[in-house]
Amino acid sequence: LVALFFLGWALLSFPLLALWDHDVLVLGLPLFPMALFGVWLLLIVAVAWVVERRPELSPDPPVH
After folding, report:
1. What angle (nearest 5°) sits at the alpha carbon of residue 47, between those of residues 43 and 50?
2. pTM for this model (two decimals)
């Protein structure tokens, strides 16, 4: 999760966001907001995947 935090921080920082700031339309929408929300969505999906794939910690050992 810490690595995803720093990845998100880097991807949403100014120098990399400036790469997407052009007068281009994607599906009729400006590229900059599409890229911004796309990166945000990918980060949310990655965090959900990391959190959901961890085995649950149970205080009781499994019963056989």
Report:
1. 140
2. 0.73
